[in-house]
Amino acid sequence: MTDVRPRNLPEFPRLERLRAEARQLQHGLRTGDPQAAALASRFAPAGRDLDLDHPSLATAQWLLARSYGFPSWPALKHRLEIIAEFTRTPEPAGTLPDEDDRAALVDHLLRLSVLNYTRDRERNFDEPRRLLDRWPDLATADIFTIAVTGRADDLRQVLDLDPGAANRTGGPYDWPPLIYLTSGRIADGPAAVACTRILLDAGADPNTGYLWHGLTSPFTALTCALGGGEQDQPPHPAAIEIARMLLDAGADPNDNQALYNRWFRPDNDHLELLFSYGLGEDRPSVWRDRLGTGYPTPEEMLGEQLRWAADHGYTDRVRLLLDHGVDPDGRGYHPIYGSRSAAELAAASGHDDIVALLANGPTISNTEG
What we know:
Layout: H1 15-31, H2 34-43, H3 57-67, H4 73-86, E1 87-88, H5 102-113, H6 126-134, H7 143-149, H8 152-161, H9 177-183, H10 189-201, E2 209-212, E3 219-220, H11 221-226, H12 239-248, H13 256-262, H14 269-276, H15 286-291, H16 298-311, H17 315-323, H18 342-348, H19 352-360
Helix pairs in contact: 1-2, 1-3, 2-3, 5-6, 5-7, 7-9, 8-10, 9-10, 10-12, 12-14, 16-17, 16-18, 17-19, 18-19
């Protein structure tokens, strides 16, 4: 059977780049290039009368769009517009600016105070606290520093005067205040909880987020509060409480990036919370509406969670997932595991208890491996 699985869009997809790729495909088909012919044979629908020896540019664009999983070139263009709108590239802080450049100091404080998921390994967030000790007025420089430092009274005053600021983006990463707050790691838990409540009461979007470097798995406010990730980023000091507030306000519990970031550790408090709010249920999703098939389904998200847990010996997590109806024979979405099942991965890694659990149901008493 011909493999018609769509390709992944390149990182930082740009319309100009894909237009050039379509022209290359058109030229390749006209000159008999084997790679162009192979792409056309995979993605041209059966029964469609196409002149692939002398294709128009519109035909090449249509074939290219189909190769990336889109029904048409306009649909691909629309997706690129969405990606461009929400893409952010949060680079770490540089050297300390000149003390007379207040705007640069404000940006520096914000960069130091939040997770950027670019270079977070071994950060302890002492540097922004020292910066505030030296210049305490930076904490109230704007709504973004107010949110990240947990100044609830000041936040309330700003929003009383300008309610629209609850969703307005700005600062060095062009984030809304709620993302600076949930990505921040310098405010104490109670202060951050109070600021979260103030922002949500003022109409802040609980599903707000951004696409890190254009990747189509959004870093939402929920993602940022729960923390975790490839560099072992810490959760917010009030992660579960803030996450519950976001979920109460309408945040989608089917949060792919939050699930991915937290799968590196065996603790399951985030999963227990998300399941209590409908994780795994097919429900309206702002980000799936925006990203379409570029965003995994709830079934795919949980299938990937199960495969990872089985591969890494997370017995309690496997049991938790099975208890919530996750298909033991399901598959996820990530190519790293291909078509292998959770049981196959557990067996290959020597986790016999998980193999038995997957075969017989959640009846084995065990602790994390």
